[in-house]
Design a protein that fits this description.
- InterPro entries: DUF7840, DUF7843, Lnb_N.
- The protein is of the alpha+beta class.
- The chain contains 17 helices and 22 strands.
- It has helices at 11-32, 37-41, 45-48, 52-86, 93-98, 138-152, 160-163, 165-175, 185-194, 225-229, 252-260, 273-284, 297-310, 324-335, 351-360, 373-382, 524-529; strands spanning 101-108, 114-121, 198-204, 217-223, 238-244, 264-272, 288-293, 316-317, 364-370, 420-428, 431-443, 456-468, 481-493, 509-519, 538-553, 566-578, 586-601, 604-616, 628-630, 633-643, 646-655, 664-673.
- It is globular, with a radius of gyration of 33 Å.
Length: 674
Amino acid sequence: MLSDKSAVIPKKACYGLRKTASHLAVASVLASLGLGVSAYAQAPKAAQNIDTNSSALQSKASANTEVSANSDQAQLKQQLIALAAQKQLATHPSWLRLHYYQQTDHKQDKQGQSKSSAYKSKITNPDFFISKEGRSNPQAELEAFITATIEQGKDGDDSVACRFPARTYWLKQQLGLEQVDSDCPDFDTWLQKLDPKKLSVVFAEEYPDRPVSAFGHTLMLIDSAASLADPKAIDKAHALNDTVAGNPDDSFIMYAVNSAFGGYPNDITIEPYPQKLADYLQQDNRDVWTYELKLTGAEVEQIMRHVYETKDLELPYYFTLDNCASEILRYIDVVRPEGNLLDEFTFAVVPSDVIRLLQKEGLINQQNYFPADATLAQAKLNNPQLTDLPSSSIDANHQLVPTQLTPVDNNPLNAHSLQRIMVGAGAQDDTGYLSLAYRGGFNGPLDRPSGYPQNFHLEAGVVEIRAYGDDEKDKGNHNRLELQELTILRGRSFNPINTARKGDSLLSSWGVNLQAIQVKDGSQMNNDARNSDPDSSHLVGSFGYEKGISAAFGSPEAGSGQLPPHLCYALGNGLAQVGKGLSKGYRVGAGVNLGCRYQLNRNARLIGEVQVPYWYHGSSANDQLKSSYWQPVLSLGAQYDLDKNKAIRIKGSYQLQDQINGREDVQLAYVTYF
């Protein structure tokens, strides 16, 4: 943790530093006054009419002063480098994190003791380092930095001290380099304009209608003394935002791939906070939560120094690991070397998960809620008597407007944990099975909705494996293990037409899925091809897209902008499936999905849906066999929450198709989130 005081160093070292610093100070003063050897050649004639022996002595003294200064400077560098080595600063977490160093190899001696480590920085730009070996050698970089700092002194904006103020400040703390006090006009002006006094994390809720924001977004609020003195004066505050600098002309698929795999650089911007807040509240209609961070004044300033060093790097943006949320954790890790928040995440850094981690680590002071324009409009629909309620949380003068509205239940601190495991037992027709399912995230139609936007259904990384027992009808299905589902992504976004969130068109609700699932082909062609075995199922790749309408009903929470709790929908869909188990290896379909979700209370909900697809997979050589057919599916489900992260779930489905057996599937499962 950073301190406002410089680090204490040994008395002997202090004496040496003071002595050499005084020599340097004298040399610096002489140089600033132009009193080198050449200065005497330009002195007035009266001053030059002196004894030649005396003049020679003075010239010799001046030369000796320069030599002495250089000698003292070299001695100071050696002392500082030795002190840095003694304190092992090259491998100090703060030094490593300021340079984005990552440990690439860890060696041990024969006794298993730590011997050495190899490091490599994520930064490839050579201008980010002082040493030519700096990217892979923290020790060489430290020595080069100390040398450059001492040699350059007060060289202005292009000096090492001005280009890298965070590193300079940290070394001053560790080595007591009080004499290194460069004048940095560019940095000083930048910092004075921001006047950073407090940092808060801003969380804009999940927004599936914009793919890059489907999992939410975080940024940093920089409060100045003026914005702290008057909380309404957000025009005196700034937003520090890290997002992907994508190409808007790229297709959706290309944009998603480049965002996920580092094809685009990140874009760090600092802009007026009202402008950024308005983008979320007014343009996207996303509610916003802010969380004040427990950071000291010294830590806030050091984070901003580091931002100054790194804001123009344009690092590769990785949607899962190097994103808006990970950057906030990295800033905190830079000033808190005793911890490592980023290590808490292995596969993905998700904005809502970051908020929960900050709360868990005791890094949040207080939180504030800012309703979107649509939330305020919905509050008026819920209670027409709220005539004094403003239409927006921000007025025309870029000032905050008090709303006194009960927050919607979308605070990520109230959400269940991101990952989910379900352990269940069920039966498919007359065959029993055990099921184990894992989901990487996020929230499904039966999951506890608290902490997420209403009607937000988005799931990724779903895997279900089933172990089947003996078939009571003895059809050869003995004790088999089967991959039931592998879902990359499935989601639905509902914008009920009778609410303030109805969207821009009548057909504003939509859904998408990309997965591999077990299916049974109900076509006559397929049954004929497999010698009339209607019990076989096969894993196929499946893609579907839905578009339609939805409507909400029921009584919302009083005094809030909450939508009615229950929902019904009608979605038209298009489907495509590919796999060996299908006739001709593929089928395409179109149909309609009709369903309702009913919220019994805060802990229980029901869902029912009927899917009516009409499938086609090409003509058959046998004119007696149809190439297209209906295969409706009825599904029901219910979940009761035991607590925020535990639940009991029951679900079942029935396929209304007489060409197949095993049409019934019922399962009871225990659900845990972690």
